[in-house]
Design goal:
Helices cover about 35% and strands about 30% of the residues. Bound molecules: guanosine-5'-monophosphate. Pfam families: SAICAR_synt.
Length: about 230
């Protein structure tokens, strides 16, 4: 078993498959702040499973196999590429701080950024030539990652818009599966996306936990309820 910030990973009888268990745990500041949050694992597993099912159905190759219980899912084992791939549709978070822009300034085209995954280094920003120099990914892999991340953005923007939610920004991670194919992995949930109510601009994501502005689960449950209603239509 190995444990991340909000999930536990278990090997299974099939060496190419992993069982992911979602924990009732929220972290901030790269894991330095950690708190128990009732039902977070169940809600995030459901949101993530719904989104990965939706992406799979729309032609994105992902690690997702199936949801197996309230807080567990089965995924393909992958060798992860140590990159956090961030896509932004509007200014918030580190972008807003870095360039001192108005909150939710709309971008004409999505912004893409890469961060090198390293807890020790606090996930530093990394550019294409640094990725090349450190052999983090090949130019070919990087091109696929860029293309897939933009396709995921278009699909998710549409899905969330139908649910009355604005997709501000999010983080993806990719890896290589047993067949050598580059596919989308990790988690997509309000832990890894910035989501605001399209009408009120109320935060429905982990910013509520990061900024201590309310009960984080209210937003997460709203996201799940609205996505379930949208895909059921
Ligand atoms: P920012 O760079 O503004 O802090 O984050 C941009 C987006 O990527 C946000 O939606 C944020 O939730 C996500 N993100 C950035 N770093 C991490 C990380 O280490 N873990 C998770 N789960 N999401 C991240």
């Amino acid at each position: 078993m190995s444990e991340g910030k909000a999930k536990q990973l278990f090997t299974t009888e099939n060496p190419n498959e992993i069982l992911v268990h979602y924990l009732n745990q929220a972290t901030a500041l790269n894991g330095k702040r950690k708190e128990h949050v009732d039902d977070k694992g169940i809600v995030n597993n459901q949101i993530d499973s719904l989104i990965f099912n939706y992406l799979d159905a729309h032609g994105i190759a992902t690690h997702f196999i199936k949801q197996v219980s309230d807080s567990d899912q089965l995924v393909k084992k992958m060798t992860m590429i140590p990159l956090e791939v961030v896509v932004r549709n509007a200014a918030s978070g580190s972008f807003q701080r870095k360039f001192d822009t108005p909150y939710l300034l709309e971008f004409e085209e999505p912004v893409q950024e890469f961060y090198y995954k390293s807890d020790r280094l606090d996930d530093p920003f990394i550019n294409d030539s640094q990725i090349h120099a450190l052999k983090v990914a090949t130019a070919e892999q990087l091109a696929v990652i860029r293309d897939q991340a933009l396709k995921v953005n278009s699909l998710m923007k549409k899905l969330f818009a139908e649910a009355g939610i604005k997709l501000v920004d999010f983080k993806l991670e990719f890896g290589i599966d047993a067949d050598g194919k580059l596919i989308l992995g990790d988690e997509i949930s309000p832990d890894s996306c910035r989501l605001v109510d399209a009408k009120t601009q109320q935060s429905l994501d982990k910013d509520v936990f990061r900024k201590h502005t309310g009960n984080v689960m209210d937003g997460y449950r709203t996201v799940l309820d609205r996505l379930q209603a949208t895909v059921a239509e």
